[in-house]
Every structure is written in C-alpha cells, then in structure tokens.
User: Fold this.
Amino acid sequence: MRPNTAALDAVILDYNGVIGLQPTRSQWLRLARTTSWPEDDLTGFQRAFWSAREPYDAGQLSDLAYWAKVLGAHPGPRLLRELRAADTDMWTATDDRVLDVLHRAHQAGLRMVLLSNAPHHLSDVLDTTDWCRHLITRALYSARLETCKPAPDAYLHALAATGASDPQRVLFIDDRADNCHAAQSLGLRALHYTGRPEALETALLHTTG
Assistant:
C-alpha cells in the first residue's frame, strides 16, 4: 500500500509502530512481574492485557478499572502507580531513524498531526516529549477523542487538525493495514509502514511542495 507521488500538504502519523518502537520481551516481562503473573505464562498475560485495551484507549475505562479487568481484582494505590509506570515505559522508546526523517520533513515545511490510540496517562507523557513539542502541529489521542482508529471520526478529527482542504494531499501513515484502509476509504492517501525508514523518506521528502 503505497501513496502516490503528488505533493503533500500534511501528514497524519500513528505513534506506536511508526515513531514508537514495539515493546521488548523484557519490558513485557517486567510488567507481568509487577502484576505477579506467572512468569511461564507471558502469552496469557498479554491476552489479558489486550482484552480490555480498546475501551481503555478510548477513554471509557479509568486506570483502576482497566487494571482490575486485566488482573481480575482491584490493585491498591501503590500497585496501580507501579503498573502505570511500567506500562508507560513500554510505549515511550522511539525510533531515531524515523525521527530523523520527520525532522527533515518538518524543516521542509510539512505539517504533521499525530493520531494515536492511547490511554490518558500515556497521552500526557507523549505530549511532553521533545519530538512531539517540536515536530507535531497537533497531537490527537483516542482517549481524548473517545474513539479509536479505525473509526471514521478519528480520521476526520485528524484531517481537520491538518488544516488541509483536500484529503488527497494528506498522507496517513500507520503500521496496521486495517487503519490504512479505513483512512483511504475517507479519501486520504495512506502508507502502511512496515519498519523501513527509507519508505518514509520517499513518501515525505520527495512529495512536499
């Protein structure tokens, strides 16, 4: 799924899997150990973790309600703080190669909007990062929008935030094909990112102006 080479007015970027690196096994294990989950059942922990993640990302569950669903019991205040910290740590490492491309695209005048499925606490942390403050025109998160990709409203909010009048001059970039297909159905161009920064470079630096 590749964008055409017409000029771009703006880009809408996913965070995790594009700018953000996927969590390592050691990070998953740290989070599982924090919950006292059996160490030989990491797959079971991940299944529980994801089972309620969409409503959490959509702002429909508090931190306490989400972790209660994952654990099957309410965590105390101290454990909840530890869970939030370990969870946030999993999602805040970034790909320097991607950020290098984005810095160059920013210098070329390309407007950038972030559209991420993320809960409130992670959204607040991402807002404070140097790359978000310096590169991103507007950061939109599912918890604040109260809707997750691939729901059409999420893309329409992001498109409006770009200020572009023609969706065909806006490129949406995501590591999930279903999110890209949803963007295309609304008239946006899309790039399914598969971990190759050179694909970003071609899409962003050769199509500005």
Notes: The chain has a mean pLDDT of 94. The CA atoms of residues 97 and 195 lie 10 Å apart.
